[in-house]
Amino acid sequence: MKYPYHLLQKDSDVISYLEVQSFEVNVYLVKITINNESGFVYDKKDSIMRFHSSQHIRDMFTEFTVEKSVMVHDSPYDEMIGNPPKQSDAMAMPFSMEQPY
Asked: A Pfam family this protein belongs to (predicted)?
């Protein structure tokens, strides 16, 4: 499922699960679950929306109700240096949606 950001309803859509996927340096993707349906957040050009900091994500979702949020990081570097692919080492860490200021 796709979730175009501009179509999300800040006052009525409750995000039960928000997963921040961390890639490389300063590239984050957001996958959300609303009404038991999960999907990535898309921009107006129908591309997966890229965020460039954790604060950028907090700012974009500050007016939404988010019940649970996590950050997942999975490193592809072993495969990039010729090591065999390994089972997912991704770990989900709690991600605070509270504004620091």
From this structure: DUF6482
**What are the pLDDT digits (tens) for 37-46?**
999 999 999 9
The whole domain housing 52 covers 2-94
pLDDT tens digits, 21-42: 998 778 999 999 999 999 999 9
Please report whether residue 85 resides in a domain.
yes
Domain count, the chain: 1
Contacts of 14 (CB under 8 A, 6+ apart): 34, 64, 65, 67
Q: Is residue 54 part of a domain?
A: yes
Q: Is residue 101 part of a domain?
A: no
- Please give the full DSSP string across 2-62, using - where no structure is assigned: EEEGGG--TTT-EESEEEEEEETTTEEEEEEEETTEEEEEE-TTSSBPPBSSHHHHHHHHT
Residue 47 within a domain: yes
